[in-house]
Specification:
The protein is 37% helix and 16% strand. With 443 residues, the protein is of the alpha/beta class. Helix 4 (97-109) runs parallel beside helix 10 (326-341).
Length: 443
């Protein structure tokens, strides 16, 4: 039964939210004790407009994807024009201009040597594709037993089944699947921070595992420089350089998961650029389309592509139904153009400075473990996990949209956020964190 178009009446809003509570299963929630959801009517720039008339400054860029802001006129026009020409066509045996243009745009900007592009549907699926490529790379050479992965703790690579196997077994949100997921190798997370002086012992755990287990390892997979949902940690570029060197030494592929870090978020176009390295396989997603459509891409070297294609079964065994969707590809091309045509590095530096200033008051609050900023990423790490239902309501009441998880209260705003809105966002974050910590102390 159709519920019709929502209007601004309180009655309609309550009815829609009631339906949502009774029938829609939101991510990371219980249907028996659901978290409150807020009805969004529209969005523009960095603002979400709720059905009740309130406006929220968005500090999350819709899980880090809406880098150009909502309702960007260039992206909206692009997707409308493409819809009038070709909204979708199967990618098996057919191709189209948006996919070709996007592949060219990506090859031009990613780390050198990555020149084979495989399009897929989401970040998690991109990780699945990359892992399948690594396994098939050695299978195609007739090498047996090299089908395991090495990664680092505090990492997160997605919620699909094989992606879960390389997420941190404790902080990666998938503990209940232990014993069911494949068992892989986890090196200690790098402890040397991004701006620290490099310590050689930081690579010891990784080197030891790779030395001992390389005959069974097909690939290393990690998030370059910035670990996302597994801990929001920023580590030293030298660590990544050493990982690349060790992968070369032991003939192991390197998969870089840049789904969160790609397209400028860390202050460089890609996380790998901080270390000046190129992976063998690269995963992209999130900001790829500027948040307009779900789309991901996996880029591989010519060597990886040729080895897979020349061995059994002679083809790469993956093919999503909506692979290379023209709407998504066309808006991705325009999103990349918008980013490259802007003074994005200076803009990210501006946001970084604003985050550093704005979050500094949190540093000395009792109950705050750490405050850290890199590029357009700001993190306040608490000693104890937040009470999600309470803190989410407090953020909305303070006019901002911030979605914490566990002990981490963080922001990754759209790149178009102005200085005044950024100051309002960070002030609200600090105010709510202080309120939440004070409330906890009183209990």
């Amino acid at each position: 039964m159709s519920m019709g178009m929502p209007n601004s009446s309180v009655t309609d809003a309550a009815r829609l939210l009631q339906f949502d509570r009774e029938h829609i299963w939101h991510p990371y929630t219980s249907i028996d004790n659901p978290l409150e959801v807020f009805l969004v009517e529209s969005a523009d720039g960095v603002r979400l407009r709720l059905q009740d008339g309130r406006e929220l400054i968005d500090g999350m860029a819709s899980w880090w994807s809406v880098i150009h802001g909502y309702n960007n006129p260039e992206l909206t026009r692009t997707i409308r024009e493409q819809a009038g020409r070709l909204s979708h066509v199967m990618f098996g045996g057919l191709t189209h201009l948006p996919a070709i243009e996007l592949a060219k745009a990506l090859i031009d900007i990613v780390p050198k040597g990555l020149n084979r592009v495989f399009f897929c549907d989401s970040g998690s699926v991109a990780v699945e594709v990359a892992m399948k490529m690594a396994i098939q790379y050695f299978f195609a050479q007739g090498v047996t037993g090299r089908n395991k992965f090495l990664t680092i703790r505090s990492g997160y690579h997605g919620d699909t089944f094989h992606a879960m196997s390389v997420c941190d077994p404790t902080t990666g949100m998938h503990q209940i699947y232990q014993g069911v997921l494949p068992q892989y190798f986890f090196a200690d997370a790098p402890s040397c921070r991004f701006s620290d002086e490099w310590r050689e012992d930081d690579i010891f755990s990784f080197r030891q595992l790779l030395t001992q287990q390389h005959r069974s390892i097909c690939a290393v997979i990690l998030e370059p420089i910035v670990q996302g949902a597994g801990g929001m940690r920023f580590y030293h570029p030298e660590y990544l350089r050493r990982v690349r060197q060790l992968c070369d030494e032991f003939s192991v592929l390197l998969i870089a998961d840049e789904i969160a870090t790609g397209f400028g978020r860390s202050g460089r176009l890609f996380g790998c650029d901080h270390a000046g390295i190129s992976p063998d396989i690269l995963c992209l997603g999130k900001a790829l389309t500027g948040g307009y459509m779900t789309l991901a891409a996996v880029l591989a070297t010519q060597e990886v592509g040729r080895v897979i294609s020349r061995g059994e079964p002679g083809v790469f065994m993956h093919g999503p139904t909506f692979m290379g969707n023209p709407l998504a590809c066309s808006v991705a091309v325009r999103s990349i153009q918008l980013l490259l045509d802007s003074n994005w590095q200076e803009n990210i530096a501006r946001i970084e400075s604003g985050l550093q200033r704005g979050l500094e008051p949190c540093r000395n609050l009792p109950g705050v473990h750490d405050v850290r900023v890199l590029g357009a990423i700001g993190v306040v790490e608490l000693v104890r996990p937040v009470k999600m239902a309470r803190i989410q309501r407090l953020f909305v009441d303070n006019g901002v949209w911030i979605r914490p998880f566990g002990r981490l209260v963080y922001v990754m705003p759209p790149y178009v956020i102005g200085d005044e809105d950024l100051a309002t966002l960070t002030q609200a974050l600090c105010r709510v964190v202080e309120m939440e910590l004070s409330h906890e102390q009183q209990l």
